[in-house]
Every structure is written in structure tokens, then in C-alpha cells.
């Protein structure tokens, strides 16, 4: 399986990092070794002093597809969940300033934390409200209605280049409010009132 991620998919988040608003989706990937699941803790790596949390809606791809048309894109996912796209912001800034790929800042082990998934039939896809709390206080809240590129846009766009396979995950971008993680932090992610993701930083 592979993990496909979308950068700058919410206007307010692009602004908070002083990035331009993209006219096409900004895509990057994480390897399967980046997956952190089953409520396991995230061990803070020592190559970074500024690991950020980014809460994102995550699509689980349910069948294989290539060059998927937008009007059929919703047939390719049945479940939606939450993930944290852990990012070594200091390393990313350094790589960006040199014009180099971001890979090491995004694709390191355990950098793709996921929680549980819920069937898409149980949610209003046009407006999915989701939030992340850190030590009991809400730090990020988002609404899929504010995405620059919708789930269906993203599936169409990515599948022109990369075949989607059953079991792949798409991290669909983070809303504003990203910030630094500290050892001892406890993160809980919710869709509506349902807690789907729980991650402690060790
Ligand atoms: Zn992200």
C-alpha cells in the first residue's frame, strides 16, 4: 500500500505557513513504513526539534483504479477516517529553501498516524466537521466544505499519474492550527463527536 498526501488544501493553512494558494493539488507520498496505527504512541525522533501535527481527513481506497473520472470517483472509497501527517517542519523548511524534495521531513517512520474509519454512508460528505485536541484543548478544527480540492477532484487528479490500489490511503490536507508536538502530549481526533484517533507523544 501507499500513502498519498495533499499539501495546502485549505486556504487558511496555506496562509499560516506563508504559502501560495495552489491552482492544482500539491501531491507528495509517504511509504508504508510511515504508518502508525492501533493507538500506538509516536516516539519523537531526534533528527528534528520541530515536529508538527497536521490533522487530516483520510480516504481509504476500496478498489483499484486509473484515470478515474470525477463523476465516478466516489465509487473508489467507502470509508473515511482521520490521520495526523507528522511533519519535521525544521527539516522541511531547510529542504524547501534549497529547492529539494521534502521527503525526509514527511516520509519518516511513523509519520502517518491513522485512527479508525467510518463508512461514508454515515456522514455528510459535503461538510465533514473534524477536530483535534491536544491535552484536552482543541487546536485544530476543519470542515471538508473548506477544501480547495474535493475528495473527487483529488482522486481524479492523482489517478491520472498514479494507479490507486485497494488499501491505499489519501491524506487530504490539513486545516489551519498546526503546531509543535512535545513529548508527553496527548492528541485526540474527532469527526463530529466521534473520537476516531488517539495518539500519545513519547
Ligand atoms: Zn499535511
What does this structure look like?
By secondary structure, the chain is mainly beta. It has a single domain (3-200), classed as Alpha-Beta Complex (Fumarylacetoacetate hydrolase, domain 2), CATH 3.90.850. Helices cover 14% and strands 36% of the residues. It has a seven-stranded mixed β-sheet with strand order 2-1-11-5-6-8-3, with helices on one face. The chain has a four-stranded antiparallel β-sheet with strand order 10-9-13-14, with no helix packed on it. Strand 13 and strand 14 (194-200) form a beta hairpin. The mean pLDDT is 96. Zinc ion binds at residues 5, 54, 56, 85, 171, 173-174.
Summed up, the helix count is 4
Helix amount, in percent?
A: 10-25%
Structural class: mainly beta
Main β-sheet, in a few words? 7 strands, mixed
The coarse silhouette is: globular
Gyration radius, to the nearest Å? 16 Å
Number of strands: 14
Q: Could you spell the SSE succession in H and E letters? A: EHEEEEEEHHEEEHEEEE
Distance between the termini: 27 Å
CATH homologous superfamily assignment: Fumarylacetoacetase-like, C-terminal domain
Q: Which topology does CATH recognise?
A: Fumarylacetoacetate hydrolase, domain 2
Average pLDDT score? 96
- How are the strands of the biggest sheet laid out side by side? 2-1-11-5-6-8-3
For the record, what CATH class applies? Alpha Beta
Which kinds of small molecule does this entry bind, naming each only once?
Answer: zinc ion
